[in-house]
């Protein structure tokens, strides 16, 4: 992840595009790319197979979401992996195994 | 990233929630969380500061986006970091430094 | 629709909130509200029933999407209903009944 | 709006595409089209002008959002215009003019 972040920053710096990367615009871009990822599943059944074409497209769009997310976190001084681990820590407290298992997944439980 | 993925899978397995994690629903969830991230910037100016409160909220929502993205890639047999590196490889070819530098950022250039 | 638009404009003007309604921020708001609408279906099966609670929630979130859409179109000098009719005109040309019927729905066909 | 809804239903029925229009997939489609609308503003400044090209593109994408929204409401037994008016009724109560005017727009105030 550290290597990816440094590579992305150098990519933008080399092209003088870093100036476009304001946090709000990066958040806009995460949403746009997330919708392109979702579009791959538009009209498909819930439980359809992931064939090689779909897999390649998911990889491509998921990469775009991740890249903007990494740039946004970098601009905001956030360690993304640490943030995710901290969120799982909180979720482990909010949803103890004993009372969560076998219960319908709550809307907000990862 | 590997550690995060394994932790997320164990979290779901422990609560028997993995059965909810169909690829389409995970893609839906990435979009929903991306919008919650974007909501943090709603009505804010383009170039506003990131104070400590906003930073904590960004970390929290960016974590949610990442977690669903990791689960989707895991379900789809995709190595997310490798996919992002492959995308940067392609972008380096599409947008050579010599012809891209100092030029307006294209819509599709990360 | 005309009555709705005028009511929305007056609502904003009465509270001096119209100044927040820049086109880009209204487009951001349409996306955020669309995701709240989508969230109502998160983890639900494709073909689940619409009970009274879900129906009330859909009405509530669909209203938010429409309101920002109407404000965005008003700011941009667009007649939303006319735009939708013009789009159907184009779709009728792109997807003639004779060649479209009984064929898998194309990704881009409404 | 009634004419638009009937035209959309006939368009789908003529092509036998109505069977694709499950509520969840229509909500997914509203989100996807909302992101395409947002993409028109990606990297643009907050307060940029709406030129004729941008206006035509906004009209086109706003039409897509509206069309899926109308179909979703139709499938769910919801009168979209009435839902929006009911929402404004509630917002008028939540945000009285006297206490709202001149105050920063709240996140959730249309």
Q: What key attributes describe this structure?
A:
homotetramer, 110 residues, mainly alpha, Helix Hairpins, 2 domains, 5 helices, globular
Characterize the structure shown.
The structure is a homotetramer of 110-residue chains. With 110 residues, the first copy, chain A, is an all-alpha fold. In chain A, 68% of the residues lie in helices and 0% in strands. The first copy, chain A, folds into 2 domains: 2-78, Helix Hairpins; 79-110, no CATH class. In chain A, α1 crosses α3 and α2 (23-39) packs antiparallel against α3 (52-76). The radius of gyration of chain A is 17 Å and the shape is globular. The interface between C and D is large, with 71 and 71 residues.
**What is the level 1 CATH name of the largest domain in chain A?**
Mainly Alpha
| Biggest chain pair interface | C-D, 71 and 71 residues
Helix share of residues of chain A? 55-70%
Shape of chain A: globular
Which structural class is indicated by helix and strand composition of chain A?
A: mainly alpha
Mean pLDDT over the residues of chain A? 93
What is the CATH-assigned architecture of the largest domain in chain A?
A: Orthogonal Bundle
Distance between the termini of chain A: 22 Å
Order of helices and strands of chain A: HHHHH
Number of strands of chain A: 0
State the CATH topology of the largest domain in chain A.
Answer: Helix Hairpins
Work out the oligomeric state of the chains in this entry. Answer: homotetramer
Can you describe this structure in just a few lines?
Four copies of one chain form a homotetramer. By secondary structure, chain A is an all-alpha fold.
């Amino acid at each position: 992840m550290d290597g990816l972040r440094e590579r992305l920053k150098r990519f933008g710096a080399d092209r003088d595009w870093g100036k476009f990367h304001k946090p709000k615009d990066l958040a806009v871009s995460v949403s746009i790319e997330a919708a392109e990822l979702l579009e791959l599943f538009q009209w498909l059944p819930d439980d359809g197979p992931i064939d090689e074409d779909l897999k390649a497209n998911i990889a491509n769009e998921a990469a775009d979401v991740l890249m903007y997310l990494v740039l946004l976190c970098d601009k905001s001084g956030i360690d993304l992996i640490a943030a995710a681990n901290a969120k799982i820590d909180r979720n482990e407290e909010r949803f103890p195994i004993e009372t969560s298992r076998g219960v319908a997944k709550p809307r907000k439980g990862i």
